Amino acid sequence: MMSIMLNQADRLAVDDDICYTAVSPNRATLIDIACQLARQFATRAETLDASGEFPTENVAEFRASDLLLMALPPELGGRNASMLDMAQVLHALSKGCPSTALIFNMHFALSGQLAHMAQVEPEGVWRDWLQRIAARRMLLGGALSESGSWNAVMFPLATAERVEGGYRVNANRSFCTGSAGLDLIQGTAAETLPDGSRRSIYFLFTPDQPGVRFKDDWQTLGMRGSHSQGVMLQDVLVPDDALLFHYGYGQLDFSQVWLSFLAWSFAGFASVYAGIAEAARDVTVQTLVGRSRLPGTHAMAHKPTNQLNIAKMDVLNATMTAIREDTARRYPQGAFVTPQAILDTAIAKYVCVTSAPEVVNHAMSVIGGQSYFRKLPLERMLRDVRAGPFHPFSADDTLEMLGKFAFGLPFLEAGGWAL
């Protein structure tokens, strides 16, 4: 297990000991890069959280590393990284700075989707975009959330009007993670056809296009360095070559496009929050070593309730590791993704985003009142980890989805999903 300890400045530091077992040489190299970056990220995490500034240095170091294009094929400068590679890299990065890792999760979800689609549809638009992304070393993100819509992929409120050379798009989106540093952003919108019916479009746009404006609204409890601002699109021209896909409005789309994206994003979210939990456990152990409290004469590590809480944390972390790694190993790399992969990754995400807060709570119980101060990273972890259950599909929506599939009920059954 890669350990986390406190240095003299009471900051999070990532140890050199890396013990991800039974890894391939490719994965070992990627994890080593991630751990080197995480050590640097850890020295800035407290400052970024306090200031709410964008992690400019972290992103620059990520861009310059082999991690940026790792999901792409070797002929484009990538590593053909698997879902397990991605999961372990994000887990390591999150132990250094969760906000930064969250930005990279969205990058990996989109690059993983594009790489997958270029394999299953080699003559499509997907490979063209991969080539552009590789040539310009682009950082990718998404704008797939809208206030007022349960799911802006299935039910986009954004509108797309067909015009010469493309579409005119208007949208008001939330949670564009990494907004200040992105080069390319995914979006969706609804097009009304001449017969009055609607269909959805999936497209890409850049932050510097006329009509694109970030809302500067990221004043939040946690994950402050992720800069997940809202973004406005006002009469933005999306050219035809930036259109990736048409699909049915208000439908559960089981195409490879969305199955691959959801699987990569779910697995990534699971890894980010599992990383926070493991870091919280390691900080707790390191803090207790050699610490005593009157009238006791033994180190606090000898206190039975502390031992029990650490054991509970280890059980939860082991559970998260097992489900993350098993799910990622079973992902059909290079083959068609099935709906079962979505259920598997959704379960892994649910387990991790709901278990991680428990681990941090145990950590704070063990450390006590000192954990409430910013001199320890636990209070930041407490705030960061609260974001996990909100990511689509939310924790409650995930349970509803799993229950409907178990009973063979329609996914969009009236009375469910806020319908």
Would you kindly provide a written description of the structure presented here, covering whatever features stand out?
The structure is a single chain. This protein is an alpha+beta fold and 419 residues long. The chain folds into 3 domains: 4-139, Butyryl-Coa Dehydrogenase, subunit A, domain 1, CATH 1.10.540; 159-248, Butyryl-CoA Dehydrogenase, subunit A, domain 2 (Beta Barrel); 256-407, Butyryl-CoA Dehydrogenase, subunit A, domain 3 (Up-down Bundle). It is built from 10 helices and 10 strands. The strands form 2 sheets. Strands 3, 4, 5, 6, 7, 8, 9 and 10 form an 8-stranded mixed β-sheet that branches. Strands 1-2 form a two-stranded antiparallel ribbon. Helix 4 (98-120) runs antiparallel to helix 6. It is globular and about 80 Å long. The termini are far apart. Mean pLDDT is 91; it is low at 1-22.
Write the layout of secondary structure elements.
Elements: E1 4-6, E2 12-14, H1 25-51, H2 56-64, H3 83-96, H4 98-120, H5 125-136, E3 140-142, E4 159-163, E5 166-176, E6 184-192, E7 198-205, E8 212-214, E9 229-239, E10 243-248, H6 256-288, H7 304-329, H8 339-367, H9 378-385, H10 395-407
Parallel strand pairs: 3-6, 4-6
Antiparallel strand pairs: 1-2, 4-5, 5-9, 6-7, 7-10, 8-9
Helix pairs in contact: 1-3, 3-4, 3-6, 3-7, 4-5, 4-6, 6-7, 6-8, 6-9, 7-8, 8-9, 8-10
GO molecular function: oxidoreductase activity
Domain Acyl-CoA dehydrogenase C-terminal: 268-392
Keywords: Oxidoreductase
